[in-house]
C-alpha cells in the first residue's frame, strides 16, 4: 500500500511507524497522538519493542504536553534529538530503556496532532540526516492528513447532498399531489359556480314557461294544440329536472340532514325495484349499521344513480352488489381512506358490479359534470358529480375502483353519528 491509498488516520499512523522502522532503518518508532484540547499525547501506533503483536499497543503511555521529550516537542513544536538519555532529566523510559532519542512534531493546520518518536540503544545514534528524514516523514504525514480530512469532508458533503436530494424529491411529490388536489378542487368549484348561476337563471325561465304553458293548456279548446302544449310541457319539465340536477351538483340544493339508517333506505329502495330486469342485485348489509347524518332524498337519488350506472354497465347474467359496513379508522391506518378522512367511525356504502368496467384513463373524468359515455339523450353525465357533491357535503368521500372487463366498485364513506 502506498501513502495515497491509506484510508484512515489510524492506518496512516501505523503505516508511518512501520515504514520508519522497515524502510528507513530506524530501530523503533512510536507515534503519539495529541488530544483535541492539546493537553496530552497518547501512544497510538508503534513498530518495534512496543508492538510485538501486530497492530496493538500494550499499555499505551499517556504523556501530558510539556512533560518528557515527546511532551516538550508537542508543546514547542520543535524537533529534539537527545544524544545520551542517561544525562537527560526529561527522559521517560518506556518498556525498553534506550540511550538516544529523536522526536519530531506532527503539525496539521497549525495544530500539533502528534509526534513521531524513535529511540536507539546506542548513544548519539541520531544526527542531521535522521532529523531530515523524520521531518520529511512528518510533512508527508501532514499532507496525507489534509487529504484524509478533505476526503471525509467530501464524503460528508455527498451524504448531505443525498439526504437533501431525498428530502427534495419527497417534498416535490407531496407538493405536486397537493397542487393536483387543489387544482381539482378549484376546477370543480369554478364549474360548480358557473353551473349554479346558469341553472338558477334557467330554472326561473322554465318556471315562467311552465306556468304559461299551464295557462295555455287550460285555455286550449282545440285538441290538436293541447297535444303540442303537452309536448312542450314534457320538454320543459325535463329541462326543469336537468336544472335541479345541475343545482344539486353545484351544491345549491339545500340539504336536510337527518339521522338515517342506510340499511333501511336500501331495503326499501330495492323492494320497490324488485320488478327490475336482470342483472341480479345482491344485498350484503351490516348487522347493525351505525347511523349517519344525511339528506334522505339525496341518498336515495345517489343510490338510484349508482344502481342505474351499474345496471347500464352490466350484462343480464352479471351481478350488482350493494353492501354496508361499519368502519373504524385510527391514526395509525394508512391507505386511501386515511389520506382523505380524519380518524373516526364511518359507515361505508358500496355499489359494485361485474360489468364492463371503466378504462383506467377515463377514471379521473367520471365525476366531471356532463361526462357521459352514454348515447345522446340517455345520460346527462351529472349523476356521479351529484353523488360526489352530496357525499362531500355530508362530510364523506367517494372512491372508485374499476377493472375494464371485470367490473367497478363505488364506495361512499360517511361519518357515523357519534
Ligand atoms: N358502474 C359503472 N360501470 C362502468 N362505467 C360507469 C359506471 N358508473 C359510471 N360509469 C361511467 O361514468 C360515466 C358518468 O356517470 P354518471 O352517472 O355521472 O353519468 P351518466 O350515467 O352517464 O348520466 P346520468 O347519470 O346523468 O344519467 C358514465 O357515462 C359511464 O361511462
Ligand atoms: Mg348515471
Automatic annotation (TrEMBL):
Top enzyme category: transferase
PROSITE patterns (alphabetical): HIS_KIN (PS50109)
CDD domains linked: HisKA
Alphabetic keyword roster: Phosphoprotein
Enzyme nomenclature, EC number: 2.7.13.3
InterPro entries attached to this UniProt entry: GAF, GAF-like_dom_sf, HATPase_C_sf, HATPase_dom, His_kinase_dom, HisK_dim/P_dom, HisK_dim/P_sf, Sig_transdc_His_kin-like_C
Histidine kinase domain boundaries: 197-418
Gene3D superfamilies, sorted: 1.10.287.130, 3.30.450.40, Histidine kinase-like ATPase, C-terminal domain (3.30.565.10)
Sample GO molecular function, one term: phosphorelay sensor kinase activity
Superkingdom of the source species: Bacteria
Keyword Ribonucleoprotein: no
Matching Pfam families: GAF_2, HATPase_c, HisKA
Catalytic activity, reaction form: ATP + protein L-histidine = ADP + protein N-phospho-L-histidine
Protein name from the UniProt record: histidine kinase
